[in-house]
Amino acid sequence: MQPHAEMVHWLFATGLLLLGLCLLCEAIVGTEVWRMRRWRAYLWPGLAFALGIAMWPVMALYTNSAIHMYAHGSWAETMMLAGGAELGLVSGRLRSGWWRLAMPLAFVVSGVAFLVHEQNTWLFSRSAFLHHLIGWSLVGTAVFPLGLAFRRRSVGLQTGFALSFFLFAVLLYCDRDVAPIFGHLSPLAGAPHR
Amino acid sequence: MESHHAERIPLERASTRSRRASLVSLVGPVTVAAGFVWGILQPHRVTLLHPSGQGFWWLVLEAPLLVAVAGLVFALVVARPLIADLEERDAAAR
User: Fold this and answer.
1) Which residues of A touch B81 (CB under 8 A)?
2) So what's the ipTM on this one?
3) pLDDT over 90 for what percent of chain A?
4) Which candidate in A4, A12, A29, A35 is best for mutational testing of the B interface (most B CBs within 10 A)?
């Protein structure tokens, strides 16, 4: 009765899409207007934290190897850390700006986890290709939250940060359990089920 | 000349702000449209179009529809009050 792994990817893609939409609108209107309503200030940090919590059942129920468990566990921890740090900063319980480094840390750790736990080559299957691409994208786009930690009001960095979530969402929506990539599908990957 | 400048600057600001409100109001509908366009381009990913023999999850979780729903929820829950706040701020500034 469990949904397929690809469906879980689509659900997380939807969460990341919502996160990106919030961040994009905050970049458009400015942080001051975005935080005019208290609930909205907590919205995207809360969503990031919730996505981290949602990663724990994924770790427990979709673990087919130890490396998968470590990867999913590290995503859960770093997403909760990044979301929690932003929640603390918004509420005023955390005051040091250094907490903003939790977000680029989450990007880099998640990216490395993607790259490490995908042991097949790029063109093994679509899933393998996407894991490599998402991994390197996460490492590369970490420059946006890293820059924002030091230049909070930069509209360019805010927009780049928001668009990087759209990129992750699109890549996760493309995921299928077994499907070819650019016409390549290793016979070891199994037969495409749809 | 001075009064001319004094009148033009707030008008330009107002124009910039209304452009921001327009952009925010477009974000949700564009996302919904993206979901529908995706469904049209890849109808096999919308299992509601051919539901017989499909399991529960295949009928509930359909990627193009998830995109459209995300856009709809965002437009109604987030964008609408955000535009109201933006316009309130604009009115107060004028």
Assistant:
1) 37, 40
2) 0.91
3) 74
4) A29
